[in-house]
Every structure is written in structure tokens, then in C-alpha cells.
Amino acid sequence: NMMVGVIRGFLYKMRFVYSHFPINVAISGKTVEIRNFLGEKRVRRVPLLDGVEYVRSADVKDQIELSGNDIAAVSLTCAKIQQATNIRKKDLRKFLDGIYVSEKGAMEAAE
């Protein structure tokens, strides 16, 4: 994993899933801010770990990409973003809103 991380790097893609209230995700400094989750006024903040880069996908509508050399830092940041959108005290079969990892792996080799 360390050799792949140094040579190519790791890329995690996360998709926003919502039924009614669109989720707004923005970056301010080294913090990811999640707004309007389930229509709540509360802003959820997740710090980016060192070495993790945040990119908003231009071609896909509700997708962010997190990349970096350290697989532990990139996957931990993705896990924290996903856990920030956990739904409590509601039926989890009905309320499927959240931000989920849709694709993960090594980046394509740049030649």
C-alpha cells in the first residue's frame, strides 16, 4: 500500500444521496462543511487530515473526490464524512440520505 500510495496515490469517490433536501457540501480551509442535511440548520464540520486533497467533481453532479498518498488518512476522512451524516432516531430503511463512498482504489497512473 505504501508503494502504490507514493507512486500513484489513492482516490475515494463519495456520492450525495438525498430524497428531498439537497445536501450542500463546501470546503473552508482544511474543513469540509455539510449544510442542509435533512433540512437541518446545523452545519456539520469534518476536518481534512494532512495529505488529503478535496475535489468537487465537475462531470458528476453530486460527487466529491478525496485523494492522497496515505490510504489510512484518505479512508479515515471518508469514514468521518459518512459518519457525520448518520441518521439517528428515524427508520434507517426509510431515511437513506447521506454521503456514501461509491468508488475507491488507486489512482490511474499518469504517464
Structure description:
With about 110 residues, this protein is an alpha+beta fold. The chain is built from 2 helices and 7 strands; from the N terminus they run αββββββαβ. The protein has a 4-stranded antiparallel sheet, with helices on one face. Strands 2-3-4 form a 3-stranded antiparallel sheet, with helices on one face. β2 and β3 (about 30-35) form a beta hairpin. The longest helix is centred in the C-terminal third of the chain and has 14 residues, at about 70-85.
In short:
The protein is of the alpha+beta class. It is 18% helix and 37% strand.
Supply the key terms.
single chain; 111 residues; alpha+beta; 4-stranded antiparallel sheet; 7 strands
Could you tell me how far the N terminus lies from the C terminus, measured between alpha carbons in angstroms? 20 Å
Strand line-up across the major sheet: 5-6-1-7
Helicity range: 10-25%
Classification by helices and strands: alpha+beta
Number of separate helices: 2
SSE pattern: HEEEEEEHE
Q: State which percent range the strand residues make up.
A: 35-45%
Unreliable stretches: none
Per DSSP E runs of 2 or more residues, the count of β-strands stands at 7
Broad shape: elongated
Oligomer state of the chains in this structure: single chain
**Largest sheet, strands/sense/barrel:** 4 strands, antiparallel
Mean pLDDT: 91
What Rg is obtained from the alpha carbons, in whole angstroms? Answer: 15 Å
